[in-house]
Amino acid sequence: MKKMLKTYLLNLLTIALVFSSCKKFGDTNIDPTRSSNLDPSVQLSLIQLRFSGDLNVNERTTFMMTMPLVQHISGPYSNRWGGIYFRDPNIMGVLWEDSYGSDLVNAVDAVKRTTNIPDKTNLNAICRIMKVYNFARMTDLYGDLPYSEAGLGIKAKFDTQEEIYNSFFQDLKAARAQLDGSKDVVKGDLFYGGDINAWKKFASSLHLRLAMRLVKRDPAKAQAEAQQAFNEGVFTSNGDVCKLDHEDIQNPYEDGKGNIRGNGVSASFFNGGGIPGRFTTPFLDQLRVTNDPRMKYMVKYYVDIPGGNPLSRIDLTEPLVEKVGYVGVNPGSYIWDGYLSNVTVEIPGKGPYTALNNDQKAQPANFLLRFNAPFLHLTYSEVELLLAEATVRFGPSFGGTAASHYEKGVTAAFQQLSFFPGGPTVPANEISTFIQGNQLIAGREIETINKQMWITLFLNGPEAYANWRRSGFPNLIPAVGVSETGESLTIPRRFEYPFTEEEQNKENFQKVLPALGGVDSWTKRVWWDKE
Question: DSSP letter at 307?
Fold first, then answer.
């Protein structure tokens, strides 16, 4: 992986420089002839690497917004945007600005370059899948957006999310059918190394994920699309997961230098000397009430040293758990809220230490936040949990019972912790004991399944946020208190568009407002998030 990333570094820098001046959407719909010499396989590498390696996007979209919104983390001042619903379109707009300025314009361009090219049919199919994957993250957060005209050198119209999703399903089916192991060898693929069969499974599994988005809006279509995805062949083991193994580099904001090789989500926890995010009380309660053994693996205490490298932190877990148990931070609260008195503990091999308030708020384990931690794009655990829910909703046509899919999904979630360098291999008896104590209960299956999805999607904030909105579980209670903007406290349902879109694409922007009740508000819902 390191060799592949370094091999493409100079080429990625070239592409980044080509598009670095295109930060506004009105500028990024460029004529592809301006970059006619770019290699689409290198564009593929850049798209894949930036998705989880870009610090600017991942810090704001994941760490500042979606992880606090879905109540995975709380505590730092920089969690206030998603934690206390501090409305700031500039923060919400970073994904839009940066994605249309690089990832999406490259995806559209790479697809165009490889269309109807006989020796690039597999590359074309993979680029089409990546285009869907990147646009899915966008539309699931914002709703209607420029899709069909994106990258055409014009001020693009907004497509409705319904139109976009219909296009997603068509494109994924066509791309999967086009993939052929006897055709061109794909270079630059950082996800699967050009493995065509793996890409077929990823296309179908992504199809399943997107199909299940529609369970509230259009159950019949959700069922039909989910069934087709399953029939085509989704993930069947942890060996199929889509992940990117990052390098041990703390990414800076200057991605133009090529430093997007580390895990951008991990870097956001330690960027700028800030306080790393703490687990929320609801998340710890979920682990506690179910006797989840992941508590002892995922949840740790460390001497509070803002910034730096996670591997340099001093572990206080054993002595602090013995004295105070596992303590989280309430949603929407800062780490200094609920201030805890000092506790003196004995650190094995180091002697006595006085643990202060910040030391006594539980954090994600080092292995989860290493800069070379993998980013899990789509997992076997998620697929099996989706199949479990599909079976509950639509009947036994997905290759097993709801219970069997649920058990496979939970087992895979435990096992995927070993993907992380230094991560645990959870003993089989701990997994089976947990499953026996947390089986599906009639009438509450969907709730139980999606509470497990909430855990398995930890560190993938945008996807966890989307799954919570589509399923309604877990039942998150809005943060208590008064927001800094004076607005009523309710968990937002979408991201607002950036100001630059209203300024530079005003005519098309105004056409999308009626569907939002005339106001671009984050309390409105995207199309599939039917109330």
Answer: S
Task: Please name which of 169, 168, 232, 227 lies closest in space to residue 200, comparing C-alpha atoms.
Answer: 232
- pLDDT averaged over every residue in the chain: 91
Distance (Å, whole) CA 306 – CA 188: 36
Contact 281, 405 (CB under 8 A): no
Assigned architecture for domain 36-234+242-270+489-530: Alpha Horseshoe (1.25)
pLDDT tens digits, one per residue of 54-90: 999 999 999 999 999 999 999 999 999 999 899 999 9
**8 A C-beta contact, residue 413 and residue 236:** no
Write out the E strands in 213-330: 242-245, 278-279, 299-300
Helix (H, G, I), strand (E, B) or coil at 364: strand
Question: Which CA distances in Å does 49 have to 140, 245, 488?
Answer: 20, 10, 38
Can you tell me whether residue 470 is helix, strand or coil?
A: helix
Task: Tell the burial category of 309 from Cβ atoms under 10 Å away from its Cβ (0-12, 13-18, 19+).
Answer: middle
Tell me the domain boundaries of the chain: 36-234+242-270+489-530, 271-368
pLDDT for 274:
77
Sign of CA dihedral 70, 72, 74, 80: negative
Strands 351-355 and 343-347: antiparallel
CB-neighbour burial class of residue 322 (10 A; exposed 0-12, middle 13-18, buried 19+): exposed
User: Exposure string (b/e) for 107-125, b if CB count within 10 Å is 16 or more?
Assistant: bbbbbebbeeeeebbbbbb
From 365, 353, 372, 354, select the one nearest 326 (Cα to Cα): 365
Compute CA distances 510 → 125, 163, 467, whole Å. 34, 18, 29
| Inter-residue contact 42 to 127 (CB < 8 Å) | no
Q: Is 363 within 8 Å of 301 (Cβ atoms)?
A: yes
Angstrom distance (rounded) from CA 376 to CA 241: 8
Place of tokens 């995806």: 107
What tokens does 165 get?
């999703």
pTM: 0.93
Short-list 17, 64, 70, 100, CA closest to 498: 100
SS3 442: coil
DSSP state of 61: I
Helix (H, G, I), strand (E, B) or coil at 243: strand
Residue 102 is given by DSSP the state: I
Q: Is 211 exposed, middle or buried (CB count within 10 Å of its CB: 0-12, 13-18, 19+)? A: buried
What confidence tier does 151 reach under pLDDT thresholds 50, 70, 90? Answer: confident
What is the rounded CA–CA span in Å between residue 313 and residue 318?
Answer: 14
CA 511, 58, 414: angle at the middle one, nearest 5? 115
Question: Each residue of 267-290: pLDDT tens digit?
Answer: 999 986 678 999 999 999 999 999
Section 186-202 average pLDDT: 98
